[in-house]
Amino acid sequence: MTFTEQLLQELADAGGRIVKTTTGRDSMNWPSRIAAARRSIKLPKTKELHGGWCRDGYEIKLVDTPAWRFAVLAPVPGPSRLTRQHSVEALLDQNPPLRPHPVRTPPLGPERRPAAPGERMGRHPRPPLEEQLAEITQEVTLRGEAAERQEELEAARQKRLRWQAAMEKARVQYAETYRVRHFEAQEAAWRHATRLTEYVTAARTPIETMPPGRTRTEAEAWINWAEATAERLDPLNTPRRMPIIPEPQANDLKPFLGHWNPYGP
């Protein structure tokens, strides 16, 4: 009885799963032996051997071959010329190492069966083609999601930079507007003080012609107060300097921000 026949009989008796306990993983090269058994003509076409190391030793299972392995796929019609590149194809063009290279495989026969998914063969495991395609597809998907996330982060960063520039411009415009309003207020105060001074000058003339007495004394006291008040209200009698700009609040900046929100981008 060959090794494959003995192994199949043992699996059949154990219900399709056995675990080979060994004193060390190097005591027997189970992956190579399972790989050889998989290529044997003794293995039924409707069965597959799966093997791998587990906590208790080397696990061997005999499972049914998936029905899709025997399905004949009909050709999918497509356009003779592509006018719009798919996003995955564009990502592969940008990342050449991700693009799968053509694989030359010898024709399958009874003596060469396809490796089972997840099987590690020999000292240098070679996963089956469909497993490689699944991994490549997953890698492309993950990288595509990462690229989209990176684009979102970059877009958010650029938006914040534009918002910060708009806020800085709004602060400059707010400060200039405050200075202009302060200047206009000084001009209005000067005109008001000038009119008061003219009034005081006009009012002093009749007081100077009044006879001495209580009435003239009270009028002179008032005219002296009025004259001092007009001088105090005149901005030209105070040092000229740039006004101190108060820290703007959110509502102070809104008129200069256009569509931007003063609280954030």
Account of the 3D structure:
Among the domains are: 3-66, no CATH class; 165-256. It is 50% helix and 8% strand. It contains six helices and three strands. Helix 3 crosses helix 4 (129-208) and helix 4 (129-208) packs antiparallel against helix 5. The two termini are 77 Å apart.
Layout: helices, strands, pairs:
Blueprint: H1 3-13, E1 17-20, H2 30-38, E2 47-54, E3 57-64, H3 87-94, H4 129-208, H5 214-233, H6 250-253
Antiparallel strand pairs: 1-3, 2-3
Helix pairs in contact: 3-4, 4-5
Short description:
This protein is mostly helical. Helix content is 50%, strand content 8%.
How confident overall, as mean pLDDT? 81
Number of strands: 3
List low-confidence stretches.
105-112, 117-124
- Overall structural class, as computed from helix and strand content, comes to mainly alpha
Shape: rod-shaped
The side-by-side strand order for the widest beta sheet comes to 1-3-2
List keywords for this structure.
265 residues; mainly alpha; three-stranded antiparallel sheet; 3 strands
